[in-house]
Amino acid sequence: MRDALFGTALARLCCGVLLFAGASALLGPLVSPWAFDAVDWDAIDAPPSWTHWFGTDGSGRDLLARTLFGTGVSLFIAFSATAVSCLIGIPFGLVAGYLGGRADLVMMRVVDGLYALPFVLLVILLVALFGRNIHLLFLTLGAVYWLDIARIVRGQTLVVRGEAFVDAARALGATPLRIGLRHIAPNVLGPAAVYITIAVPGVIIAESFISFLGLGVQEPRTSLGMLIADGAREMRSSPWQLAFPACWLAAILCAFTILGDRLRDAVDVVGGRRRSHDERRTAPFNRAPLPLPPVRGAR
Amino acid sequence: MARYLLRRIAFSLVTLWAVVTVAFFLVRAAPGGPFDGERRLPPSVEANLRAAYHLDDPLPRQYGRYLAMLVGGDLGPSFRSKDFSVNELIGRGLPVSLVLGGLAFLLALAAGVGAGTWAACAKDRPRDRLVTIWATLGLALPPIIVAPALVLLFAVGLGWLPAGGHQGARHFVLPVVALALPHAAAFARLARGAVIEVLARPHVLTARAKGLPGRRIVVRHVLPSALLPVVSFAGPAAAALLAGSMVIEQVFSLPGLGRHFVQGALNRDYTLVTGAVIVYAALVLGLNLLADICLVRLDRRASHA
In angstroms, how far is CA A124 from the centroid of its own chain? Predict the structure, then answer.
């Protein structure tokens, strides 16, 4: 695991990019001379300069400050949506995997059915109808992304359930609740955590997609998707308004994706056997590649 | 086979019905109605409008009326665009989206499978590295970055291609490329992994020992079995291409289905939004069904999964 994060120069670079993005989003607003919504009347649509490193937008707001603020919003939504999806997905997967049999079948049918829904449309519908609300945004995104996590946790639970220590705990008279929480959950969460880091860039993309359509957070607040949408509108006259936020988001997403790939290779365990790199690549994937047998009719 | 097919079709229909129901009640539970304009309408006019569109009926009756209309293939009148029915609006947008999505799908499939196979035949050599890097970038970067970047480079910077509109074939080049790129990358990774795996199988060794030329081995002995995971991904990918075209339509100002959906959602045009969601859902479910049928025809084991 440590090797996957720091093993090569590329991996260290990716870690550095993410640390830098996170730290600048947290600390940037504290040290920046410009607030994200402060207007500099002397620099409307100004190209990059020493006073405004990233230039300014059409209302004279400093683009660096806005990019950092937008990064913070995007990361916040991504992490809270992932937390929401864990709150739903982990218990669901644990229960389904532990109970097994008919209950498992029914619960996984529900997941399959939900996979078939064009979910992003419903998220957009919700956000458009009930107002552009940051809480609603991450709640609904979390409600979409729990499916992947439930599947992974269920698969791991099925593996762990057959281990001898679970039988031993049952023989000692532990209740199912105790077995689930004390014996199975700790062994399931490690691999699940890796897939959670893989889910984060997916949520960032979904959020920026919604913001891009003009349905995300409300002005003057902003997010990376919104900044790119605004920049795309002005790209003929002031290309820097597109270039800086787009490159920033691209760097973050690349770093997440590369690290996620490496982490998955490091922990990709199926049936107690580590799969080779190339073998893993054959697993069908869409949003996040899963270490499970191909499931028909996924999304 | 027939039983499997029937079960899958029934499952898709139930899912579609669930989408219709959720969309119907969601839209009506939202605050704000389709007739809230800049100026408040006189109460009598608003009451008349509501009566004309049957919005003053109890919800269950509205729902029943809507389902009955749907079965007849009618999505109802648009609440906002007064002179148009939803069928007309969607009928105008859908061809644009279908052409865009269809071309992007073909491009993604051809480029992805081609590049993946090409890379797998030279595993760990430079061209394999190149394809792997390209696939990683393509997967990491969403259309909202790629599409504006392509416009900036090829339309604004170099001036080779138009930046928007849909008058001719040239207008579709950039949107199709931008839409196809992430999926081409996904196809490339899948195909590369599968081809590498199949190349290591004994029957390929036999074919090589017989002295068959490399190209023939790949085409006749490797690709048929290596393409199974690609086919199982093709259904969801085709569906995602159609839904993902919303951003592309926005950037390139193409009047497709996605624009109608976003506009309808912003204007609270109940019937238009519900109609667009239903059409999208039907497309997605239909394509997944089609992919499953292809998969079962290629590999009988899949029907027992």
Answer: 17
Residue from B17, B28, B144 to probe the interface with A (highest A Cβ count within 10 Å): B144
In tens, the pLDDT along B58-104 reads: 778 888 888 888 887 777 777 776 677 778 788 888 888 888 888 89
Number of CB pairs, chain A paired with chain B, less than 8 A apart: 172
Which positions 286-305 of B are in contact with A (Cβ < 8 Å)? Answer: 288-289, 292, 295, 302, 305
Kindly list the residues from chain A whose CB atom is less than 8 angstroms away from the CB atom of residue B229. 282-284, 294
User: Within the 238-297 window of chain B, which residues sit less than 8 Å (CB to CB) from chain A?
Assistant: 239-240, 243, 246-247, 250-251, 261-262, 265-266, 268, 273, 277, 280-281, 284-285, 288-289, 292, 295
Q: How far apart are CA A65 and CA A53, in angstroms?
A: 9
User: Do residues A92 and A107 make contact, with C-beta atoms less than 8 angstroms apart?
Assistant: yes
H/E stretch holding B101 reads helix B86-120
Mapped onto helix, strand or coil, the DSSP state of residue B148 is helix
Interatomic CA distance for residues B95 and B257, integer angstroms: 8
The phi, psi pair for A72, rounded to 5°, reads -60, -45
Region A58-77: mean pLDDT is: 83
Phi and psi torsions of B33, nearest 5°: -115, 175
DSSP B302: G
Q: Cα distance from A159 to chain B (closest Cα, Å)?
A: 19
Handedness of CA B90, B96, B99, B105 (dihedral sign): negative
User: Which residues of B fall within a CB distance of 8 Å from A122?
Assistant: 22-23, 26, 277
Question: Which among B246, B238, B200, B247 has a CA at the least distance from the CA of B221?
Answer: B200
Model pLDDT, residue A43:
72
Residues 6+ away with beta carbon under 8 Å from A272: A159
- Separation CA B283–CA B142 (nearest Å): 22
Instruction: Report the C-alpha gap between A283 and A292 in whole angstroms.
Output: 8
**What is the Cα–Cα distance from B274 to A108, expressed in whole angstroms?**
28
- Kindly report whether the peptide bond that precedes residue B142 is cis, defined as omega within 30 degrees of 0: no
- Spatial distance between the Cα atoms of B161 and B152, rounded to a whole number of angstroms: 11
Q: Which residues of B touch A230 (CB under 8 A)?
A: none
Which residue in this structure is represented by tokens 């499953």?
Answer: B292
Say what the ipTM of the complex is.
0.75
Nearest to B243 by CA among B282, B206, B269: B282
A170 min Cα distance to partner chain B (Å): 31
The top-scoring range by mean pLDDT among A187-191, A232-236, B83-87, B103-107 is B103-107
Provide the CATH topology of domain B94-256+288-304: MetI-like fold (1.10.3720)
Q: How far is Cα of residue B138 from the mean position of the Cα atoms in its chain? A: 17
Averaged over B135-141, what is the pLDDT?
A: 83
How far apart (Å, rounded) are the C-alpha atoms in residues A205 and A196?
Answer: 15
For residue B192, pLDDT beyond 50: yes
